[in-house]
Design a protein that fits this description.
Blueprint (H helix, E strand, L loop, with lengths): L4 E6 L3 H12 L4 E5 L12 E2 L8 E2 H14 L3 E4 L2 E7 L2 E6 L4 E9 L3 E3 L19 H4 L7 E5 L3 H10 L5 E5 L9 H9 L3 E4 L2 E8 L5 E8 L4 E6 L2 E4 L3 E3 L29 E3 L11 H26 L1
Helix pairs in contact: 1-2, 1-6, 4-5
The chain binds NADP nicotinamide-adenine-dinucleotide phosphate.
Length: 313
C-alpha cells in the first residue's frame, strides 16, 4: 500500500505523545502532526500536581520530557494544521492547510480542545491588548497590575493562583455562587490574600478604551439586578473549552457537543480511525486519562495495522 506512515497521530498533547510512544515501541512507523509546540494544554500550564511520579512538575518540562521520549523512539514530528481526513480504500489521507497530504494506514485524532471565548464583538480586537487566554504565557506582562479571571473551574482557579505572583490583585469572577473546580483549588483561592472572589456576576460586555485596549468588564450582578463595571488592566477568561473537531465536519462520529464518540478501544466506528484525550466524549479530562486513551488507541491501531498488512502479504 502506498503510504508514508503506518500511523499518523493528529495532535501532540499527552494523548498524542503517549500514542506515539506506544505505536513506536510496537514497531510502527509513526508521525505526529501538530500545529503548535508539542505539549498541548500542558505547555500553557504552570504547575502540574497530579501526574503520578511527580508531586509537582512544570507543564513545559513535562511536555519536553514526553516529546524527547517520542523522538528518542523514532516518531516523526510534522508541523501542520489538519483540514480533513480522506479515505482511499484502506489508506487514510491527512490533509493540512498548506496543501500537504500524508498517507497512513491508521489515524489517531488527539486534537484536544480550544479555549472558549466570551463571545463579545471585541474578542479578537482585544487579544494581546489586555485580553489573554494563557496566564503562563502573558502573566508577567501584568506585574503590579490588576487582573480579572472569569470562570470557576479548575483552570480559572489554578490560573488565578498563578497570576498572584505578578498582579497586585486578582479578582476571580464566577457567574454562580459556587465553583466547579476541585475543593483543594477552591480552598487555596479562598484563603489567598491577593484574590477576591466575586460571585453571581455574569459577563455582559468588555470595557474598551479609545485606543482599543481592554479597560475592564461589565457584569450583570444577579444579586442586585444591575450592570456593574469592574476595571482591570488584564483579563483571563477560563470558561471552558470546545473540542477541536471542525476538520471532521462530514464524518458521523461526533456527539451533539462535537466531541468524538469512541468505544472502550478508542475506535470511532470508522475503520482505522481512532481518537484519544480531551477530544473524546468522557467525564474526566486529565493528563493521565489522556495518556491512558493514547496508549489504548495506539495498541488497537497496532492490531488493526497488523491485520491489514497480513491481509496484503
Ligand atoms: P470547566 O470545568 O468547564 O469550567 C468552566 C467554568 O467557566 C465554569 O465555572 C463555568 O460556570 C464558567 N463559564 C462558562 N461559560 C461562562 C460564561 N460565558 N461566562 C462566565 N462563566 C462561564 O472548564 P475548565 O476549568 O477549563 O476545565 C476543563 C476540564 O479540564 C475540566 O474537566 C477540569 O476539571 C479539567 N482540568 C483539570 C485540572 C486539574 O485537575 N488540575 C486543571 C485544569 C482543567 P458554571 O460552573 O456556572 O457553568
Amino acid at each position: 500500500m502506498d503510504v508514508q506512515y503506518d500511523l499518523i497521530i493528529v495532535g501532540a498533547g499527552p494523548a498524542g505523545m503517549t500514542a506515539a510512544i506506544y505505536g513506536s515501541r510496537a514497531g510502527l512507523k509513526v508521525a505526529m502532526l501538530e500545529k503548535e509546540a508539542p505539549g498541548g494544554k500542558m505547555i500553557k500550564t504552570d504547575l502540574i500536581c497530579n501526574y503520578p511520579g511527580d508531586d509537582e512538575i512544570n507543564g513545559a518540562d513535562l511536555s519536553m520530557k514526553m516529546f524527547t521520549h517520542t523522538s528518542g523512539l523514532g516518531a516523526d514530528y510534522l508541523y501542520g494544521n489538519i483540514t480533513g481526513i480522506e479515505f482511499e480504500g484502506d489508506v487514510r489521507v491527512v490533509k493540512t492547510d498548506d496543501g500537504s497530504s500524508y498517507r497512513s494506514l491508521a489515524v489517531i485524532v488527539a486534537t484536544g480542545s480550544v479555549e472558549r471565548t466570551l463571545g463579545f464583538p471585541e474578542d479578537d480586537l482585544l487579544l494581546g491588548k489586555g485580553l489573554s487566554y494563557c496566564a503562563v504565557c502573558d502573566g508577567a506582562f501584568f506585574k503590579q497590575k490588576e487582573v480579572l479571571v472569569i470562570g470557576g473551574g479548575n483552570s480559572a482557579l489554578e490560573e488565578a493562583l498563578y497570576l498572584t505572583q505578578f498582579a497586585s490583585n486578582v479578582k476571580l469572577v464566577i457567574r454562580r455562587d459556587v465553583f466547579r473546580g476541585d475543593l483543594i483549588n477552591q480552598e487555596q483561592v479562598l484563603k489567598h490574600p491577593k484574590i477576591e472572589v466575586i460571585r453571581n456576576h455574569v459577563p455582559d460586555h468588555y470595557l474598551v478604551s479609545d485606543d482599543n485596549r481592554l479597560e475592564g468588564v461589565a457584569f450583570y450582578n444577579k444579586d442586585e439586578d444591575k450592570i456593574v463595571e469592574i476595571k482591570a488592566d488584564g483579563l483571563f477568561p477560563y470558561i471552558g473549552q470546545d473540542p477541536a473537531t471542525e476538520f471532521l465536519g462530514g464524518l458521523d462520529i461526533l456527539n451533539e457537543e462535537k466531541y468524538i464518540k469512541v468505544n472502550d478501544k478508542m475506535e470511532t466506528g470508522i475503520s482505522g480511525l481512532y481518537a484519544a484525550g480531551d477530544v473524546v466524549v468522557k467525564d474526566l479530562r486529565q493528563i493521565v486519562t489522556a495518556a491512558s486513551d493514547g496508549s489504548i488507541a495506539a495498541q488497537e491501531a497496532f492490531y488493526y495495522i497488523q491485520a491489514l498488512k497480513s491481509k496484503e502479504s
